Amino acid sequence: MLSPQDNDTLVRVGPDTPMGQFMRLFWVPFLRSSDVEVDGQPHRVRLLKEDLVAFRDSSGRVGLVDHACPHRGAPLVFGRNEHDGIRCVYHGWKFGVDGKCHEMPAEPANSPMVSRIRIKSYPVQERNGILWTYMGPNPDSPPPLPHLEWNLVREDQVAISIRVQECNWLQALEGEIDSAHAAILHGRHGDGGVINQWKQAADLAPKFECVQHSAGMSIGARRHTPDGRQYVRVNQFLMPFWTLVPPQAQFPELSGHAWVPIDDEHTLCLMFSYHPSQPFYEKTRKVFKEGHNGRETGHASEQSFEPRPCTHPFPRYWSRYNRDNAYQFNYALQVEKYNSGLPGLWVQDAACQSGVTPIYDRSKEHLGTSDTGIARTRRQLLDHVRKFHTEGLRPSSADHPEEFMRRAISITLDAGANWMEAGAEHMRAQLGKDFGYQP
User: Fold this and answer.
1) What is the Cα–Cα distance from 172 to 371, expressed in whole angstroms?
2) What gap in Å lies between CA 375 and CA 192, rounded to an integer?
3) Phi and psi at residue 131, to the nearest 5°
4) CB contact at 8 A, 221 and 236
5) pLDDT (0 to 100) of residue 187
């Protein structure tokens, strides 16, 4: 369990909080490049409890600026995106992607205010169809983008989805580094269904072993196999909010999430699935987009969204499965077929992570041995946040992008074998390299 004070330290992400300042040392992915069109409608964004607007100017540059005009506070989401700037519709003040004011039509010509006024802006970079921003110190000389394999492979090798989840970022992240729940929550009655055939379903009480590294934590779950060997799944946590999930034998692909804090009670969930050495399976990509037999998969389908007005942050990515409608829980279905009674994989996870409250009081928890990875990850985060807050010590991965070149793995070993040694080469990401083993 955590004390209320430590819980607050981990989940509060505003600019004046220890975790918020720590998060700002890293680049943050926040939208698809295609979401923000040249001279198109501005897109409301909220990141780390800051309200912003994204727009792409006439020259193709993306700006991420304060959501309110500094004149009289009018919403810039209504702004006219034209001629290399966003123009407030109230009095016509116009701003570039760097936040500098270009024009004030209602003020006298050559007014000194024009050169003096500037709104908050953050640098934006694009890579392989994703927009990234840096909200940390020295924005004019940010560190390099992290070398995350999913965003370095060819675009035809990766499938991406984005959704908003109504809970704090850590509640969402912890669900993905907890591999003990998978075969239970996502399973069904009897022997039918693909998930019931997962190797981890043969042993529901794995032994967890954690190894800390410079970028985060390797979380191994060791399970017995019917032939006397051991099946080891190693999830990866990468600071500050990344998770990597091992491949399944039935689905040889790598996947994971960025659990980006929108504010203290909402998370932007960017999910990626990719094949490291060949184009992604078109059939699987289609299932991700359309769902399967009316149910959700690991990715949010195109039918799962409930669009909101443009004044809401990320208005295209709010889910129709939420706390207000009980995530469309169906008790009859739970009795007859699926363990959870919830309509698909990611919905099952989101309901368990968010269904009680946006910020759960972790001092009320009763953790077991299956929560070893969660406990160790919390401790690691608290340690790094405190060292940065009190001593100014930055984690090395914030400045060394190559430290993110890691993979999650699922390997079968002789009983008692050292998975760190046996899996070391497989956990090292290298562009163009296949799995190197049979998942």
Assistant:
1) 15
2) 34
3) -90, 135
4) no
5) 83
pLDDT confidence of residue 184: 87
Cβ-based burial of 282 (10 A; exposed 0-12, middle 13-18, buried ≥19): exposed
CA–CA gap between residue 151 and residue 160 (Å, rounded)? 10
From residue 82, alpha-carbon distances to 57, 86, 106, 282, 305 in Å are 7, 6, 18, 38, 29
Regarding predicted confidence, which is higher, 204 or 118?
118
> Is the Cα dihedral 142, 144, 150, 152 positive or negative?
positive
First to last CA, the chain: 34
358-393 per-position pLDDT tens digit = 999 999 999 999 999 999 999 999 999 999 999 999
Give me the mean pLDDT over the 107-130 stretch: 95
**Cα–Cα distance for residue pair 100/333, rounded to 1 Å:** 56
Is pTM beyond 0.90? Reply is yes
Note the pLDDT of residue 190: 65
**What element of type H or E holds 53?**
strand 50-56
Burial class (CB in 10 A: 0-12, 13-18, 19+), 79: buried
What one-character DSSP code corresponds to residue 113? H
